């Protein structure tokens, strides 16, 4: 019997009120993910619970709400350090009509788990995950019209990414999230506010900048915009 933390049960229930397409498959994929990770990748089980919280969902819903308001058509989105991509792929497909989502993630376990959560999208050629450290290798030129990084606090500042890709990518939309929470060891790059996040990300044309206190008590900052 798989044990699911109370917080993750609530978050999963809330998530499913937002699932608009492939609902039965989504439920089956989620159920199987919990079973498989418990059995095959048990050391990842606590992290799995951490990825399925109401605060995680809140920050992803906030993201799609704000991008939706901007009314910018997005076909192909690159997730930078997208972790298990448990909420974001479905929301991008359902709410923003995104056609392809590619996750660039350096953790192989995260890749495998993301494929379990998103089996329905992987089978349809909508979701793909590549094991890649985005700070050390560049991208296919002009393939993406948007890059989403909700893991900015976990990695070097985005100007490293921009430096690597300055000659190869066009002018995609960037959606960045971070926090000022310094308690966790893996928050190697927290920022003080959304202004600092925009500066780090070299977002010169800011379309949206905001702060939210999530129900976990953590501050979340988000910047949406272009480099030029
Ligand atoms: C804890 S998770 C994401 C948490 C984040 N708050 C969110 O809501 O998505 C951070 C992820 O970033 C990934 N990551 C960190 N640095 C990276 C890099 N340079 N390239 C690719 N992935 C990276 C890690 O492997 C991890 O899966």
Task: Return the CATH architecture.
Answer: 3-Layer(aba) Sandwich
Ligands: S-adenosylmethionine
Query: Which fold name fills CATH's third level, the topology?
Result: Rossmann fold
Number of E-state strands? 7
The first-to-last residue Cα distance is 52 Å
CATH class, named Alpha Beta
- Detail the poorly predicted runs: none
Strand arrangement in the largest pleated sheet: 3-2-1-4-5-7-6
What would you call the structural class?
Answer: alpha/beta
Shape: globular
Radius of gyration: 17 Å
Please report the number of helical segments: 9
Main beta sheet, described?
Answer: 7 strands, mixed
Share of residues in strands: 15-25%
Would you mind describing this structure in some detail?
The chain is of the alpha/beta class and 228 residues long. The chain has nine helices and seven strands, in the order ααααβαβααββαβαββ. α4 runs parallel beside α5 (88-96). The radius of gyration is 17 Å and the shape is globular. The model has no long low-confidence stretch (mean pLDDT 96).
Indicate the topology:
Layout: H1 6-16, H2 23-40, H3 45-51, H4 54-70, E1 76-80, H5 88-96, E2 100-105, H6 108-117, H7 119-123, E3 127-131, E4 146-149, H8 159-165, E5 173-178, H9 194-200, E6 205-213, E7 219-226
Parallel strand pairs: 1-2, 1-4, 2-3, 4-5
Antiparallel strand pairs: 5-7, 6-7
The chain binds S-adenosylmethionine.
S-adenosylmethionine (SAM) binds at residues 56, 59, 81, 83, 104-107, 110, 133-135, 150-151, 154-155.
List keywords for this structure.
single chain, Rossmann fold, 9 helices, globular, binds S-adenosylmethionine
